Amino acid sequence: MIPFWLKLAYTLFVAILLPIYFVRYGPRNFLWFSDIALIAGVPALWLESSLIASMMLIGVLIPEIIWNVSYFSGLLFKKPVTRLAAYMFDQSISRPMRALSLFHLLLPPLFIWLVWLLGYDSRALVAQTVLAWVVLPLTYLLTDAKTNINWVYGPAARPQHLLPPLVYLGLLMLVFPLLIFLPTHLLVLALAR
């Protein structure tokens, strides 16, 4: 059902991006949920997997919409809504490196289209939650507060100091499923009807 050219083009893009990001940012960067979704898009396309596409849709739709709004507000009004896409306007990062990050524009429509085409797999909510409960503690163990990948050290660019770090991490492990995955899951189920 999915055109071969799309599978090939997407796979080639990911194959180009991965080694460049690995050298520039290191392997820990691939713990970002958006990077996981980008990579998971390859098997989702080739296997035409409704489960993988559904997981990635509920996992990244809300954060990617926020990234896109922030990016376009920065582009059009010179004021990003959040710091999520602020690096896209950092002149110390080369234009080609910033251009690679434009994959954030692609992820929402890609996964929406895949779920529309392949159908929504309602097991995605549990599967994405389990994935998050593996990724978030790993991110906490393998990264530092400076990079704050997946916001495991605080909800903003700087670490939070109101709660003990592991209490904050535990709350974050509830926030992702309850405030990001579940609303998207319910929205997709409602639209599927």
Major β-sheet annotation: none
SSE pattern, N- to C-terminal: HHHHHHH
Q: How much strand content do the residues show? A: under 5%
**Number of E-state strands:** 0
Provide a count of the helices: 7
Percentage of residues assigned to helices: 55-70%
**Over all CA atoms, what is the radius of gyration?**
17 Å
Task: Name the shape in a single word.
Answer: globular
Q: Unreliable stretches, pLDDT < 50, 5 or more residues?
A: none
Kindly report the oligomeric state of this protein.
single chain
What secondary-structure arrangement, pairings included, does this model have?
Elements: H1 4-25, H2 33-47, H3 50-77, H4 95-100, H5 103-118, H6 124-142, H7 165-192
What would you note in describing this structure?
This protein has 193 residues and is mainly α. 69% of the residues lie in helices and 0% in strands. The protein has 7 helices and no strands. It is globular, with a radius of gyration of 17 Å. It starts with a helix and ends with a helix. The relative contact order is 0.13. The model has no long low-confidence stretch (mean pLDDT 96).
